[in-house]
Design a protein that fits this description.
434 Repressor (Amino-terminal Domain); Rossmann fold; 3 domains; 13 helices; 12 strands; DNA-binding; elongated; homodimer
DNA sequence: ACTACTTGTCGACGCGTGTCGATAAAACTC
DNA sequence: GAGTTTTATCGACACGCGTCGACAAGTAGT
């Protein structure tokens, strides 16, 4: 592997000039820079990570706290990770994965102080999240995928709840549905809370009635939810699900009771990762979740922060797209 | 953060002695080592990653090539990753994630040569895998989760196909099933091929007849498989599925046709990650997949290899456990 | 008692980079 | 045109650790 010295020799400049030409911290004559870049390309030179970290105190390494998977988030986490990792690499950073145990927060600080880690990406954010509190106190740069209840100026990427919900509700409206229900989880993570209120808002704009059915993150609960719907609200013609796992159980329930989806009942799943779609029959109509992009965006925001590009936007909302598949149809006539 | 020099001072020894005391490359008086370790603990000293990598040419960083997810493997990949990462951390290594594009193989070599990466973990291994060929030629240490057709002396962790299959088949036998079918995917990865032959073997030992039904990795295909089974082999009383996604479709199909699982038909899924189980109703009887352990084992094997502990075992097979849930029952009487 | 090893420790150097201060040349200022 | 600032470049050093060679003290062999 070529070193800086070799590049310098080939370009006929000093080693430090190569540094400045590449990092742009001092003014360099344009022609010199070109010569350097050419030498870099010729030798296929890449700055050595370790040396850079040692000399500059910048590890160019991000840590992503990998979730335990308790909320079924594992199913989509890989997309986040892939996105975050790809973006990090594009900007010359590494992404390391840490299976997160709450107990290890202190260790993160140690790593950050020793320069081993430049910043942290968090996912599965709770409304009140002690990790966030801790990282702020420890002055470790971080970015969230999701957000706390009051994120203030903290960096985050989150789903655009309002946009996503509107896409779904408007589509149901266009099919003539006026009585809908939605499946939601009450969990501390806050996702469903935000979705829930966005949905009520969107529905009332379209003058729909919207029933709420509580589920937990299990297929069996989705099945129970179907039964509840069937008994209590037989006039509902469309269901919006905010929970992927329960969605699958809901479909099983409908099958069991002989209710045909989408002829008798439409179903639209918000915010569902691509992977899930192939898991159900009929294939789900969804507003999908741009997980890869969210991960990438988190990396970029975090790196901006680390590099003190504070002018850049550090709070991003992303909405997916409506993808019509097999679980939606025109509202049945009573 | 404390440095080696500070530890040396506190312990009243030279800096190099601290190094040797910690790494054990030279003989050190036991009492001295104790003093050093005490100082290390007192100062909460951790060797600086970057400096170590620079000086020793050892980055203590593993790269895991993250799969694209085309085979639905994304669903369990996170478990592998968490396991690999946890084990790596226990041994003082980092695990970085690389979303893998085939085109980037050359880059891996560059990184390895520059000492940035000490080794690579591969998953989603194909029978003939060009990545393996490449890494061997490039002399980059690697370990596979899965294995090629002829792994030779290459390091790998894989599922114990024979053990896993036997657990499943024996259990069905104990419930009185004699006519079974199995759902399998013919894909280049080789997993199903190995499972398939293990299954035929296990079934013939128990004097069962075993029908094979081909599926692809989609729910709809599982549904089609049910229909095929229903029409062609109505006397089958139990089904073994080797494909998680198709399993879910299969259940939908049964629901649709009014066949009750497990009363009319038993279903057992081999090698299914925990995450999946909550996604179906009734809950699946499975032989589960020890994904976390497999990931951890891959890291350990790879690190052994990097550190030239060549006496250690570098090929490991792991079987899951039979977990009886809601999809198996005694064979129906004809 | 002399050599020949072994054990335990130390000092010195190098890994490849980021960055500071110095310097020479060029560009302004009045 | 003397003084001042700006631009472009260079040399030197530090970052924290791994490791080699040196050396003193101890042990074994004759």
């Amino acid at each position: 592997m070529a070193t800086r010295a070799e590049v310098a020799k080939l370009a006929g400049v000093s080693a430090s000039t190569v540094s400045y030409a590449l990092n742009g911290d001092r003014s360099i004559k344009e022609e010199t820079r070109k010569r350097v870049l050419k030498a870099v390309a010729q030798l296929n030179y890449r700055p050595n990570f370790a040396a850079g970290a040692l000399a500059g105190g910048k590890s160019k390494t991000l840590a992503l706290l990998s979730p335990s998977g308790e909320f079924g988030i594992a199913l989509i986490a890989l997309e986040y990770i892939n996105g975050a990792s790809a973006a990090a690499r594009d900007r010359g950073y590494h992404l390391v994965i840490w299976p997160s145990q709450e107990s290890e927060l202190a260790e993160i600080q140690t790593f950050a102080e020793s320069g081993m880690i430049s910043g942290v990406i968090l996912m599965e954010i709770k409304f009140k999240d002690e990790r966030v509190t801790y990282l702020k106190k420890a002055k470790v740069p971080f970015a969230m995928i999701g957000r706390t209840e009051k994120p203030g100026k903290d960096s985050y990427v989150d789903r655009d709840f309002i946009g996503t919900t509107q896409l779904g509700v408007d589509y149901l409206d266009s099919l003539g549905h006026k009585k809908i229900a939605f499946l939601t989880t009450e969990r501390a993570v806050g996702v469903d809370t935000r979705f829930g209120s966005a949905l009520l808002e969107a529905a009332s704009k379209k003058k729909m009635t919207a029933r709420k059915i509580q589920v937990v993150n299990e297929a069996s609960s989705g099945r129970d939810a179907f039964i509840e719907l069937h008994k209590k609200y037989p006039d509902v013609t469309a269901v919006v699900s905010l929970n992927d796992i329960a969605t699958l159980g809901f479909i099983s329930g409908a099958n069991e009771y002989g209710i045909k989806i989408p002829k008798d009942l439409s179903l639209i799943a918000l915010d569902t990762p691509e992977n899930h779609i192939e898991m159900s029959w009929p294939p789900l109509t969804t507003v999908n979740l741009p997980a890869f992009e969210m991960g990438a965006s988190a990396s970029n925001i975090l790196i901006d922060q680390i590099e003190h590009k504070e002018n850049k936007q550090n709070q991003v909302l992303l909405a997916g797209e409506l993808v019509v598949r097999g679980t939606t149809a025109k509202a049945r006539k009573e």
